[in-house]
Amino acid sequence: MNTQTRVFRLACAAIAAFALATPNASAADRDAAIRQPTVVVTALRRPQNADTALAAITVITRADLERSQAPDLISVLGQQAGIDVSRTGGPGQASTIFLRGANSNQTLILIDGVRVAATGSGLFDLAHLPPEQVERIEIVRGPRAALWGSDAIGGVIHIFTRKPDGPSARLTAGRYGRGEISSSMGWQGNDSGLAVTAGYRHFDGLSASNTDAFSFDPDADGLNNRNVSVRGHSGIGNQKLALTALVTNADVAFDQGASSVRNISSGLSLSGMLAGVWSHRLSLGIANEDLDTPAFGSVFDSRRQTADWVLTRDLAATGTLSVGVSSEHEQGRSLDFGALAFDRSRNTQAGFAAYGGTFGAHAFEAALRYDDNSQFGHESTASAAWAWQFAPRWRTRLSWGQGFRAPNFNELYSPGFGGLFAGNPALNPERSRTVEGAIDFTPDREQRLSLSVYRTRVGDLVAFDGVDFSAINIKQARLDGAELEYHAAYRAWQIDLNAGWQRAQDRSANSDLLRRAPRKLALQVSHVAGNGWLLGLDGTAVSSRADFGGDLGGYSRFDVRTAYPINAHWQIEARLENLLARDYALARGFNTPGRSLSASLVWNPQRRKNAF
């Protein structure tokens, strides 16, 4: 047994031991802590109870984000089941996520229902979206192409922006020259409301790279981020008109220079009842990204417009039917040292139908979607799921689903760099099939335990390979894995534990896909005393995994956090990251922060005692 394996197992044992040291709650405590149903909207594009959903779903609430005090969403997502993260340096540096081993551009990212991935890279860097702008996150693991179309091979991450119902403010300072300020204001009437959240983040930063990198400059690579969101709604008869808008501007330094990226996403929707039997939602969305990297002479402008109309009808005893149509226009324009590299656009029209019903101890869901892409032609995808409540506390789930991803404009048309990494207009779309089995155990209303196993096969996977590293379709990738999740919430305690095992392989080359950890364990524990004093511990253990030029070593990391209410309106918070000062890497050749302390002063007149 090598040193890395021993470290990983010891860290796993320590984390698991801490998690299992759960205090026994009295019957009175359990009765007082009745958990309200969590409603999600992403898995079936309609509201449903997360506890009875047939998909693997994780929900991160505003309260969860406040408890974590995490500096960015990458830190939050890295603690969740089925997710690996990678980052080329400290805060604000380029970040990627891998959901169930799928590539980052094989996970659909939505903000308030709007697709936000850049048309060039197919990515949206969540490092530029501060947690202070987020109300909740729904993570659906497994293919959702039959409902959402392209990109949803690994799953969907749906982010909902803040909707405060009053004023609040936060001031944060910490190591590496960290300084943050944010403020929210909200007003809610009988059938209307308006909310605004704005913030500024600054990091002096740390050196993004080290001597293992292709290029190394031991300077501090910092970040400046400005962000604002607006959301409002108003009743119009039996309809509801809603508006959302989010703008982020980030200036990020790296060894070769700096880049500036601006993201704008906005949505307008009308929802309500039609003919007394159909509920509907008509929505329009815009997502723009402008990326300027002077050091590479690169400018990329991404434009995406979408329109969706989804109608849902309750079929009484037989279930619920949803139908929808959508239209999307994508445009990408790239400049290379002032010369036009490409200016391309394409359109997609789609329609789908989905059904879900419960029949005694059995539940069933099915969906079918047809996409017509002006560049790649038509694509049909389907999914089906079944669940059986075979005992009062036990349920088993089985599901199957297809997915696909249309290559992005960089993969198709990029001129590359020095004759390398060029696009290929002859690429085919990626296509996938996934099967999943799961068993859920709910011993009481405060605890949940789930075990899921899955296999995904991806054909025509796009990779930059060959002599000149140009884009090609490789034969097949296979993603196998298992996830174990445990959640407990008592009056004073909340515990979340998840463990993952996976094998993500390029079957054509018989090699591991990069930066996917075969084993991972994550723990979050929070305790709130009677006076509202919060204490928390976060732990992560990650095994070694493949990367460019060699393996990344396994590591374990612990963070501690606390929050204390000074009075009904004011609270102080502190978070100590990387408690044991572990030296580890999320990408070969790039640094991660060492032990770092941050402190916050929070003003929130709406905060209730024991709000955590």
Secondary structure blueprint with pairings:
Elements: H1 3-20, H2 27-32, E1 39-40, E2 48-49, E3 56-60, H3 62-68, H4 73-77, E4 83-87, E5 95-99, E6 107-111, E7 114-115, E8 134-141, H5 145-148, E9 155-161, E10 168-174, E11 178-188, E12 192-206, E13 221-236, E14 239-254, E15 257-274, E16 278-293, E17 298-314, E18 320-336, E19 339-359, E20 362-373, E21 377-391, E22 394-405, H6 409-413, E23 430-444, E24 447-465, E25 470-489, E26 493-506, E27 511-512, E28 519-528, E29 534-542, E30 545-547, E31 550-552, E32 555-565, E33 570-577, E34 596-603
Parallel strand pairs: 6-9
Antiparallel strand pairs: 1-2, 3-8, 4-5, 6-7, 8-9, 10-11, 10-34, 11-12, 12-13, 13-14, 14-15, 15-16, 16-17, 17-18, 18-19, 19-20, 20-21, 21-22, 22-23, 23-24, 24-25, 25-26, 26-27, 26-28, 28-29, 29-32, 30-31, 32-33, 33-34
Question: Your description of this structure?
Answer:
The protein is mainly beta. It has one domain: TonB-dependent receptor, beta-barrel domain (Maltoporin, Chain A, Beta Barrel), CATH 2.40.170. It contains 6 helices and 34 strands. The protein has a 22-stranded antiparallel barrel. It has a 5-stranded mixed sheet with strand order 3-8-9-6-7. Strands 1-2 form a two-stranded antiparallel sheet. A hairpin with a 2-residue loop joins strand 6 and strand 7. The radius of gyration is 24 Å and the shape is globular. The protein starts with a helix and ends in a 9-residue tail after the last strand. About 4% of the residues have low confidence.
